[in-house]
User: What shape does this take?
Amino acid sequence: MTSQQPIRAVPAEVPEGLEDVYLEFLVEASEILSRMDTEVVELEKGTAGPELLEAVFRGMHTLKGAAGFLNLASVQEVAHRAEDSLSRMRTDGTHPALLVTVLECLDELRELLVGGASRTSSPSVRVNGATMDRLLELSGEMASRRQDIARLLAASGRGIDDPVNGMAATVEEVHRTVLRARVQPVDEAFGRLPRVVRDASVQLGKKVELIVRGREVEIDRGLLDPLSDVLVHLLRNAVDHGVETPDSRRAAGKPEVASVVVHAYRSTDGVVIDVSDDGRGIDVERVRAVAVERGLLDPGRAQGLTESETAELLFLPGFSTAGSVGMLSGRGVGMDVVRTAVEEHGGSVTLESSKGLGTTISVRLPSTLLGMPVVVFTVNSYRCMLPRGVVEKIVAPDELLTIGKELAYRQGSVLVPVVDLAAVFSSGRSRGPGLLCRIGKGLVVFQVSSLTGSTETLVRPVDRLLRAQGIYTGMSLTENALPALLLDPAGLIRRCGVTLSSSTDDQAEPLPAPSSAATTTRALLVSTGSALYAIPERAVLGVLREPALAAVAARPGIFVLGDEVLIVRGPDGFPTAAPRCLVRLADTRHALAVERIIGLIDIVDVRPAAGVAVAMTAHGVAEILEPESLYAGELGQEVVR
Amino acid sequence: MRVCLFTVGGSRCALPVEAVREVVRLPETTPVPPGTPVKALAPLRGRIVSVIDRSAELGAASDGDWLLVLEADGRDIGLLIDTLPSVTDVEVVPSAAPPHLDPRTVGLLAGVLLLDSPVHLLDPTGLVGQ
Assistant: This one.
């Protein structure tokens, strides 16, 4: 089933034989309600002529009449109430209380007829959509069968390429024509917006004008609903957090009425929808303070952040700058939800703000879901895909570094955690290449078994049994007509709980990952075999070369040094034989056995890589052994997690 | 009641014919990582069907050779079965599953048909649940 919702049941009170009429009525009612929402919000501004009131009146009258014909008493009753208020406006003028009554009636009608959300895509459009989807599947199947035939012919050496190629052209055109039918004007996603802005500004005592541009820009039908949800969220945010009260606007020398602009336009790789307000902009200091307070940012780093990096903090899960939890937004689920929703559909979100002047949030979406570019690969026997947009590059297996028991990839001065997808799927190890992926501003490498290729594909929704896993966003047929699962990079990260490395430009100071101790520390650098370890100086009591240790028989790892008894462990946490060098630890009871002591260094670049803290040093990558874990009785388990 | 009769993991099972869309020989599938009842994805004339395997709950774990595509809970899903089904009219009223059955099995059943030997009458919604 490709239709997104089952067709609504026809209520019992609809007279027999009128079921089809009822379904048509639902489509019409949904359109009328959506139009009236915009019209009533316009009326409220008080600048419209009497013909607008007449248009609303006519719309309501049509609804009431049809509801009567279909025996829908409750709909008729609400429409009648709205009509009453509207006819009083004809004589007494557009009184605010009357308008509010009409808006409430519109909500009730929507609840009764459309089922709550004021979606503009009507049931009949969905049914048509399902048919379109099926046509598309079939044309895709034709294309793949054509390839099968071409392969067979090539193998048999028969010279009938021309007809086969002719057929290919036809198949291609069918496919393209069907694709074209899937796009719709983005305006379909804008239907709820005037009402959202109106309700939010009334509730918050603000004055806001909504300006919409680029309604005609076309976008995939399947993106309309998610886009509409995202825009509602962003507009509420803009009115709640962006726009000032009329008083503060006047004090700042701005017009009392704020403007919020929704602007859709085409870009090279899809569609961009900008949501801009001319409000107060983002208070960088405040955002930093909140991030530090919530433990999302190290205080030492807060001042060094650029404005755009600070804005990026808003996208961290759980971030909200609202001083008090607002009625409309600021519930602690904010921009991270918006970003996730957009990324799930192959898009991205960015934010720009200047203090006092306003904020622009840009939502980028692919113009079609059909030709979604993906990278196809296998993870042992599983066939999977990732959106090509998140994959920055492919990393050869021998470029992966072993640190502790984990793998990491070195990108400039940053160590990026490597997540083995085979381990995520509980199927051993992948041992193949890695895909360096950017998720928001974080980086991660997903290790796979082998790469199949890169292609554009029609992505379909997965069954809810699979969606419930939180890591699959879709599926599609790849080459050889075999299905593959589209993975959700953010979901994979959530599943395995890894902390991402922040990506850096050469100039920009990187955003520290929340859990990293990102300050300069003095540490003792030691080595055993090819492995480097850094021990924070505060944990070191002293260093002994060729120590005169006496082993205690039958107690491996326990040594006597002079009149002291020491617990000696290797960096891997296991007892060792008498070591070449000994690092005594500050608790005086423990010591670390190593082969070579290199010296004291400053650890400048601490990044958590796959759960192991590491430092970049002139000698190479060193694992940081934290004193807390060194003191623990089970040294090894603590060090390597 | 008109039912499709087939076996799953060696156990006799039935589904009302209305719930059955089609039965095909299992095509080459793509396995799905563990953690869900969906074992694989099967291509079916340009569509992709999620394949669930209930042989362990209904009989002995096995690899069915046939795919029964059923409609349940508003979507299509494929159930692995051992044999090509036969269609029969049955007169008996389904009995409730006996209380000592494994709850995981009971969750898949609409009842038991007491034919010449007992037949699991499957519940389409139960089959496609977690």
About this structure: The mean pLDDT of chain B is 90. The longest strand of chain B covers residues 2-8. The interface with chain A takes residues 28-38, 41-43, 45-48, 50, 52, 71, 74-77, 128, 130 of chain B (CB under 8 Å). DSSP finds three helices and eleven strands in chain B.
